[in-house]
Specification:
The chain is mainly α. Helix content is 72%, strand content 0%. Residues 1-32 form the signal peptide.
């Protein structure tokens, strides 16, 4: 996806500006907020005085409380009170779109149109609102105007297509609608390489390989020798099941005399996706080497179970490191560890002379000792780091996290808990330690204690997005406190509206609340952004409940392909009783 243009404000930026302005006003005249009172943290005032800024402050309180509809209402009130203020009207529009409150978005957008000339951002909002309403005719019109650079505010083709793509991404929770729009608009995509590549990748994300093929076929006419186009073509063929054709393109590219680094990495990625890890490593072996190429080559060869190949990379790396600096010594230790030359790894880690790499090497020594069966020595080593006053607080904290992880992997839950408790005694209120302990409690099905640790993080930092999402998802998934979960997740969603994990959580809590159709839109959008087993299982369960069982099975199968051991997949299969087709015979695959 192309980066969001600067003109398209994020909700977080809206909120920060509005809050700053409101607090500025309140510092001048504390009575400007009227008689309204806040009865609990994050709750919006029951009433506000006249003027736009108190209403904007109330909207910010609602946003912080995860009450998106209330936030949209307050910001709309603020925009109405601020006569002629186009910026506040734009903010109100964006927040209403985030809340998917079409009525408020329509009213805020009308104010924006009255107060400002038509702009790319405004047309993006118009297209997004049309997509939320599933008004295919209006959406197609606005998107085409953006693509063709038609109308006031559209300076050139180069400006509009990014905004069109952003709007389509926002509507990607309805793959059928987006697919029809892509098919209708494919001939209007500007004839420039970045636009073609971006739309080709987006078509693949929404699983419209037919449209991706058409886009790629068109762009090959204009850029037949562009490596990025060839890689996209190979990717499209592979996803369409035409692996032999994809391989021909990759082999032709890899035969080139000189490969630019970005092209080499792209080729290796495609070979790796096909399972040809040896070819991926061979591509990276050509040309100048650096730490990244060495570690990637070793990784690909390890996936190919080519221990001799990984050992050869290790020997090459040693030859090229006659006088290795600390970073190279650390890398040599990591590669030695990777190829299970644990004694060599210990020697390399011990030889790192100083600096930040020294502490990384000391931390890595503990799991190496553990792998060698020297378990007591490993724990003594890591306790020495925890007690070392010369180590940074971050290093000492990481030592507690690492030791807890070793105990977890050894199925020693009491020792895992004791380690995290010791870490929190040394570093009270350290969020990563609290987060690790919360996840441990959740694995033990002790939801009250998990909640307590996550709430402790939020008491220290009310805007910690990871804690908001984790607590909201835990309440949605493991309790019946769905409204409370919704407000927590909505706060995370307002801060990071394009985060696939948060979108998934948001969809999941909507499903728990019985808002099944709305949930499916969010979950499908999350899956277009991240092909994850948990998200796929969520999509599948919702489709099953909606009676779309054939589609559900397809998503269950995809979740199993990504991660057969997914806990979410197992729970969804148990709940629905869905029966999946047997796994393919690897010998005959």
């Amino acid at each position: 996806m192309p980066p969001m243009p600067e003109a398209v404000f994020t909700i977080r930026r809206f909120a920060a500006v509005a809050l700053g302005a409101a607090l500025s006003l309140l510092s001048i005249d504390a009575s400007a907020a009227g008689e309204g009172r806040t009865t609990k943290a994050g709750a919006a005032p029951e009433s506000v005085g006249p003027g736009p800024l108190p209403a904007a402050l109330a909207g910010e309180y609602a946003l912080q409380a995860g009450k998106l509809d209330d936030a949209a209402r307050w910001y709309l009130d603020a925009a109405r009170a601020a006569e002629g203020d186009a910026v506040l009207a734009e903010r109100a529009t964006r927040i209403a779109l985030l809340a998917r409150n079409q009525a408020f978005a329509d009213q805020a957008l009308a104010l924006w149109r009255q107060r400002a000339g038509r702009s790319l951002g405004m047309r993006n909002a118009e297209a997004t609102l049309a997509l939320q309403r599933k008004d295919e005719t209006a959406a197609r019109r606005e998107l085409r105007n953006l693509l063709l650079g038609r109308g006031e505010g559209l300076k050139s083709e180069k400006d509009g297509w990014r905004y069109a793509l952003l709007a389509m991404d926002a509507g990607s929770g309805d793959p059928a609608l987006i697919g029809r729009l892509l098919a209708a608009l494919v001939d209007d995509i500007p004839q420039e390489l970045p636009a073609w590549l971006a739309f080709g990748e987006f078509a693949q994300q929404v699983q419209r390989q037919d449209i991706a093929a058409k886009i790629i076929g068109r762009v090959l006419q204009y850029y037949p020798n562009e490596p990025g186009v060839s890689l996209l073509h190979a990717n499209q063929l592979r996803r369409s099941g035409k692996e032999a054709q994809a391989r021909k393109i990759l082999d032709r590219m890899s035969a080139a005399a000189i490969l630019l680094p970005d092209v080499a990495y792209g080729l290796a990625r495609e070979y790796g996706a096909m399972g040809d890890y040896a070819a991926a490593a061979a591509v990276l072996a050509r040309g100048p080497q650096n730490d990244n190429t060495y570690i990637l080559r070793a990784s690909y060869l390890a996936q190919a179970d080519d221990k001799a190949g990984v050992a050869a990379v290790y020997e090459e790396l040693k030859r090229e490191s006659a006088s290795p600096n600390p970073a190279r010594r650390l890398l040599l230790g990591q590669v030695a560890e990777f190829i299970e030359r644990q004694d060599d790894a210990l020697d390399w880690y011990a030889s790192v002379p100083g600096g930040p790499q020294r502490w990384q090497a000391r931390l890595r020594t503990a799991p190496v000792l553990h792998k060698l069966g020297r378990v007591d020595e490993a724990h003594a080593h890591i306790r020495a780091i925890q007690a070392d006053a010369t180590a940074s607080d971050e290093t000492r904290r990481d030592a507690y996290l690492l030791q807890a992880d070793l105990y977890k992997n050894d199925n020693r839950p009491d020792d895992e808990l004791a380690t995290l408790d010791r870490g929190l005694a040394a570093f009270p209120d350290e969020s990563q330690l609290l987060y690790a302990r919360a996840l441990m409690w959740e694995r033990r099905d002790d939801i009250p204690r998990a909640e307590a640790d996550l709430r402790r993080i939020l008491a220290l930092d009310a805007d910690d997005v990871n804690a908001l999402n984790a607590l909201g998802y835990t309440l949605a998934d493991r309790t019946d406190r769905y409204q409370e979960a919704l407000e927590l997740i909505a706060r995370a969603y307002a801060a990071e509206p394009d985060n696939a994990a948060i979108i998934d959580s948001y969809g999941w809590v909507l499903y728990r609340l019985g808002r099944t159709e709305e949930a499916l839109v969010e979950l499908l959008r999350a899956f277009t952004k991240q092909k994850d087993a948990e998200i796929a299982a969520h999509v599948a369960e919702v489709l099953w409940v909606l009676g779309r069982k054939d589609e559900a099975v397809n998503y269950f199968v995809e979740a199993r392909r990504i991660d057969p051991e997914s806990r979410s997949l197992k729970r969804a299969l148990d709940k629905t009783g869905a029966v999946l087709p047997p796994l393919p015979d690897k010998a005959g695959a």
